[in-house]
Design goal:
STAS/SEC14 domain-containing protein, globular, Transcription Regulator spoIIAA, 130 residues, five-stranded mixed beta sheet, 5 strands, 5 helices, alpha/beta, 25% strand
Length: 130
């Protein structure tokens, strides 16, 4: 299965929604980064005050080079989310995702409802950021 992704934004709630599936190559990562940049340009919140929910349930196990590219993508401070949630399936790709997340403080969920509830829940510091 080749790579597929979609990225959209809920401007009113400052939520970026990403769906990723398949097996990614370097060109796919390049296209993803370009799309992410254009979607983030639509956000109206302060930098890094948005939340992101990424659905990776249909991701395949990736090569180590691609996992490293995902780690670099997640580490880019220009796109850092206030809250980062992943919806995953209990597959062999889940450990790769956890490795890519590293120490980001992201959360992993089994379904969209739980991920969105966590993203939308008030956290310490939200009032200061508002």
């Amino acid at each position: 299965m080749s790579a597929s992704y979609s990225i959209d934004v809920d401007v009113a709630r400052s939520i970026v929604r990403i769906t990723m599936s398949g097996f990614f190559g370097p060109d796919d990562i390049g296209g993803f980064l370009a799309r992410r940049k254009s979607v983030h340009a639509r956000l109206t919140c302060e930098p890094n005050m948005h939340c992101t929910i990424t659905d990776t349930r249909e991701m395949k196990i990736q090569s180590q080079d691609i996992v490293a590219m995902f780690q670099d993508m997640l580490a880019d401070p220009a796109y850092r989310s206030r809250k980062l949630a992943f919806v995953t399936a209990p597959t062999l790709a889940r450990p790769q995702l956890l490795r890519a997340i590293g120490s980001r403080g992201a959360r992993v969920f089994d379904n969209h409802a739980d991920a969105e509830a966590w993203v939308l829940a008030a956290t310490v510091g939200d009032a200061a950021a508002a």
